[in-house]
Write a structure and sequence with these properties.
Strand content: 15-25%
Radius of gyration: 26 Å
Largest sheet: 6 strands, mixed
Keywords: Lyase, Pyridoxal phosphate
Structural class: alpha/beta
Number of helices: 18
GO molecular function: threonine deaminase activity
Number of domains: 3
EC number: 4.3.1.19
Cofactor: pyridoxal 5'-phosphate
Distance between the termini: 81 Å
CATH class of the largest domain: Alpha Beta
Low-confidence stretches: 1-16
Strand order of the largest sheet: 1-2-10-7-8-9
Oligomer: single chain
CATH topology of the largest domain: Rossmann fold
Shape: elongated
CATH architecture of the largest domain: 3-Layer(aba) Sandwich
Helix content: 40-55%
Mean pLDDT: 90
Family: Belongs to the serine/threonine dehydratase family.
């Protein structure tokens, strides 16, 4: 090779390195491919969030997508491009549930055999739905990352094609079609807030949005108990978390993907983290005010608005990424969300141990419009005087101000509140 050719080859290599892994053209091609496969999900206004932010807030309802989340977009895009030989070998995937269902449904539509590895403890409805779409399901490990290790071993043993949840250009391109829809549905959009785990969804959306409307701010929201992105971005490369703890299983990913990383680094304006309490409040808000069932991961973007509403310039689009939630978790999250919102009040009071004392307490609560959910007595503890009884109360209130008013009413009635 001549020196000139060598320099040219190096320049071409440098250009290839600088070229983004996914372009808006890739997303546009994916949109054509998916035209008859996915729903153009609605963009619904949220009066409650709009009032909070001080301008229009719109909910991109991917929880109403086929299989209950955005995942079918990337899964179908990736799998439709497999060769005949690859399709014959089948596909394998790892997921806590949404990617599992997306892969299983795409495989059924394309006539491909699918095997899914899911973590032990994955929500039962997600496991059962994946099976109903025709996948063979195995459970191993306690996280998506551990299940992914089993999926890779299956790939090596059987030759099945691994369909990664987020770390592939076709996956990112497919997820990016959400961004194209957002711009078509809301041309004057100023901010997009997207939950993130491995980064495939926000990377795809940012690719589409920044190419067509570079002024639109793209914000990624991550559960603080599984926030691998801030440290990874600071380090300049994907870094794995030592541990994770969050109810948002759909975004509990310990290490960002290599393909999404550069796109997120270059195109996403900010990454914020949200508390578990905010996730539960967000889920409850979607249920009560928007009549939408959203899983904790899908509510992460809403949680970001609840924590810092002034940080988002309207019109704001909030992506509700999925609605597949275990009913048992839903009940727990609702209770937690109501407590966080001041809707549940737990307290212990001490009164004289004589007839009528409990009815007196209940009368005060009734006059204060507190709904009594549970009552229990304690008589045998050294902390109590001989003539005292402790009453534990679980009450339903309308909010923090009402809860404070209830406690004040008890105190004014001479009831001693001890906790």
């Amino acid at each position: 090779m001549s020196p000139a050719a060598g320099v040219g080859g190096a320049a071409a290599a440098d250009a290839a390195e600088q070229r983004p892994a996914v372009t808006v053209g890739d997303v546009e091609v994916a949109a054509e491919l998916l035209a008859d496969v996915v729903r153009t999900t609605p963009l619904e206004p949220s009066a409650a969030l709009s009032e909070l932010v001080g301008g229009p807030v719109l909910l991109k309802c991917e929880n109403l997508q086929h299989a209950g989340s955005f995942k079918i977009r990337g899964a179908y895009t990736r799998m439709s491009r497999l060769s005949a030989a690859e399709r014959e070998r089948g596909v394998v995937a790892a997921s806590a549930g949404n990617h599992a269902q997306g892969v299983a449904l795409a495989a059924r539509l394309l006539g491909i055999r699918s095997t899914i590895w899911m973590p032990v403890g994955a929500p039962i409805p997600k496991v059962e739905a994946t099976k109903r779409y025709g996948a063979q399901v195995h459970q191993a490990g306690t996280t998506v990352d551990e299940a992914l290790g089993h999926a890779r071993a299956h790939e090596a043993e059987t030759g099945a094609v691994l369909i990664h949840p987020f770390d592939h250009v076709d996956i990112v391109a497919g997820q990016g079609t959400v961004g194209l829809e957002l711009l078509e549905q809301c041309p004057d959009l100023r901010t997009v807030v997207v939950c993130t785990g491995g980064g495939g969804l926000v990377a795809g959306i940012a690719t589409a949005v920044k190419a067509r409307a570079p002024h639109v701010r793209v914000v990624a929201a991550q559960a603080e108990g599984a926030a691998a992105w801030p440290a990874s971005l600071d380090a300049g490369e994907p870094r794995a978390l030592a541990r994770m703890a969050t109810m948002a299983d759909g975004i509990a990913v310990g290490r960002p993907g290599d393909v999404p990383f550069g796109l997120v680094r270059d195109l996403v304006d900010d990454v914020v983290t949200v508390a578990e309490e905010s996730l539960s409040r967000a889920l409850l808000l979607m249920l009560e005010r928007s009549k939408l069932v959203v899983e904790p991961a899908g509510a992460a973007a809403v949680a970001a608005l609840l924590e810092d509403p002034g940080a988002f310039e309207p019109p704001v689009a909030v992506v509700l990424s999925g609605g597949n939630i275990d009913p048992l978790l839903l009940m727990r999250v609702i209770r937690h969300g109501m407590a966080s919102a001041g809707r549940y009040l737990g307290c212990r009071v001490r009164v004289p141990d004589r007839p009528g004392a409990l009815s007196g307490v209940l009368r005060v609560l009734a006059e204060a419009d507190a709904n009594v959910l549970e009552v229990f007595h304690t008589r045998t503890t050294s902390a109590l005087a001989v003539d005292e009884v402790e009453i534990g109360l679980q009450l339903e209130t309308t909010g923090h101000e009402h809860a404070t008013a209830v406690l004040t009413a008890l105190a004014l009635a001479g009831v001693r509140v001890v906790d």
